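Input/output pair, single chain:
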Amino acid sequence: METVNLFGTRRGRLTQAAVWSMERERFSAQALAGALEVSIPTAISLLRRLEEAGLASACGAFHSTGGRRPRAWSARPSARFAVGVDVTRRQVTLVAADLAGHVLRTRTHALPFSRAAAYWQTLASQIASLCEGLPGGAPLGVGLSIPGIVSRDGDVVLRSHALSLREMRVEEMVPYLGEACRMINDANAGCLAEARADVSLQNAVYLSLSDSVGGAILVDRRLRSGQNQRIGEVGHATLFPGGRPCYCGQTGCVDAYCRAGLLHAHTRGNLPDFFRRLRGGDAALRAVWEEYLSHVAIAANSLRMILDCDVILGGYVGREIGDSLPELRARAAVRNPFEQDGAYIKACVYKQEAAALGAALLWIEAYLLSL
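Output:
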């Protein structure tokens, strides 16, 4: 499945109309015509087609400014929904999202990863519970965010060091999750959610700082995959030659210095508690945090030098880093011969369940593009 951004221009008029309307509570045919640069009769025709598809409905009229009162329309994003699952070594996070990309429901379960049938049976049960009572009938599909290298069509996990597997095919989970099931790299999924939340985002590196470190590259609001589907594998770039061992078998990788576990290892696996104690003045955690920031600054500055675009920090750490952003930028600036403020480093806009939402967006995009 190709990862296409909903806000791009390569889509049909009906898809454009659907996406535009999903972002508004109430609108007129005239407003839709102006946004899409089409005639009012064409806009009315598009609205009728959305109405037939159950994606829009008339809802009264606007006040008149002279002449006939314009008819009011509203979109129905809850007409359909999709499910996204962020799969990690220790747990799963589930999200149900409507056609506007709004999260309807989310749940997190402790579920150690296993390739066995029992794992997929348990996950299927958790998804069924998540979807129970939601409007829109059955989900459009299930998207799985995976910390690993995923084929372009989303059918195969080619390799995942974090989950200790190779060549895991979607056919293995179809008997439990259904035919409408696809996978996506976790950093790519997080980047999709970020692009969905920030419509101004054009070009960026998304640096995911979670239980593992990953990256995604966004160019002209489209994700890039690379020659071997490995673009953005920042976690296994060498930060310090001969340095700390990495779970991939190498030494000195970015992951060995920037993964979230280096922080929550000091608070019994509880990352929010790490940041609570840090902000409360814990001197020991301050020393850990300062070392961590120095390493992230080196990685972020290297990405800036190579790709010359903003670096967005996501994942578990990225959503907590706000108060420390000036300090991080200052550490990066001293390594940058061209810029003095490090303003290119930004915290993610979308801070909750980003990878799970991005996986759900796969199916939302596919549905809207099919209109």
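The first strand starts at residue 27 and ends at 28. Residues 246 and 256 are 5 Å apart (CA to CA).
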